[in-house]
Structures are given as structure tokens and as C-alpha cells.
Amino acid sequence: MRVKVLGCSGxxxxxxxxxxxLVDHDVLIDAxxxxxxxxxxxxxxxxxxxxxxxxxxxxxxxxxxxDTVGWMRKSPIxxxxxxETLDILKAHLFNWKLWPDFTQIPDPAHPVMRYATVxxxxxxxxxxxxxxxxxxxxxxxxxxxxxxxxRASLVFTGDTTTHDPLWAMVNEIANLEYLIVETALSDxxxxxxxxxxxxCPSLLAAELRKLKRRAQIYITHLKPREAELIxxxxxxxTREHAPRMLQLNQEFEF
Length: 254
Fold this sequence. Notes:
By secondary structure, the protein is of the alpha/beta class.
């Protein structure tokens, strides 16, 4: 599997793009603003979108993607998410008020998009690739994803705060190679991190003490206003893990 980072920031501006990972050529994990950097032909190859949760920075490009290339495809784009997240998107995004319901057009028998429900711990097989939803703890229903090529695995936590069930499942991944974990805020905004169910460096350090596997760790979703400070605090508090900041256009092959 090859994963390319299309977006990994907690905001926009200049070269900043919100969360989206391109898996091989045909799968998105979240669909933030970075999806818009793909060419028309690349967009048309997206068959599957796996959504961690319903917040705009993670789903912003889904409506525009469907509207742009749905008519160029012979099969619908499959939107994978938990039942709770799909219900939110149906009610508040694809509702004919904010955006059309692409599961009904051009007609229900030949839609531009279709929904597929995922559940924590239940793998979705795409050929030899396995994508497994992981438990997360956020202000809306949320999951992370475990991407398994068969040879190695990458875990993307999505947006989450402290959550023992997440680490229990991560610790069961024998071939774990990469861990991408959010840390949105600095410790000076710890109260905001707790209220919004994000991680800050001190919370991240406590969570990483639960990790029993060796992995290369990358930090994502940093708020632009304090990204440098967040990484400085992480470096001090998690020396044994040596996390690095995830970078736009970074690639992982495993």
C-alpha cells in the first residue's frame, strides 16, 4: 500500500490543507481540503472514501468530488462511515439544502454515490488490502483506521482524545509500522483540548505510555497558530518515541 498525505493541518492558509490521505490511487481516508489538489483524472479514480467523523475539515471535499467526477464514472463512489456518521451527513450535508443527495441522482438505480456502514473492529477488504475501523473519542461519533497491506500496517487515529480502547486494539497489531496521531493544541490550551476532545502534548504523552508496539510516530492536525510550540512540547515530553510532524505530500509505502 502507498499512502500520500494530501492534507494534515488543523487549518487552512497558504500551503495548509485539512485532513486527507490518498491510499494507492483509489481510496481516501477523510476528504479535507487537500483533495482539491488532485487532477481531474486522479479524482475520477477515487472509488472509496472512508470517513473518520463528520466535521467539515474532514469531509469538505466529498460534495465537490462527487459533483465534479461522479458523471465521469461507471460506478458510484462508496462512502464508508459508521451508522452515526452517515446519519449526520445525510441529515446535515447531503440533504438537498446544503448539497444534493448524490445517492439519489441521476436516479436511485444509478447513483453518483452510495453509503456503506462500517463498524469498529470489522475489516473492509479491498483486494489484498484491509481497512479496519478503530475506536476513537471525539465530540461527535468518530473512528480511526488501521490500514493493513498484509506486510505491514499504518494506524491513523483521526480526531480523538484519551481513549483506552484505541490503544488496546493498536497493541494487537503485530505488523504495526506507522502511527499517525492527532495533537491539535498546545498544553497552554489544555482546557480547550479537553473540552473539544483533542489531544495536547501532555495528554499525548500519557496516551503513548499505553502503546506497547514499536512504530514510527507522526503528529497530525496541529492548529496553525501554535504548530511550532506543539512540536516543541511534544519533543520534551515524548523523547523515547521521537514523534515527527506529518508533512504535506509525505508518502508511506508498506
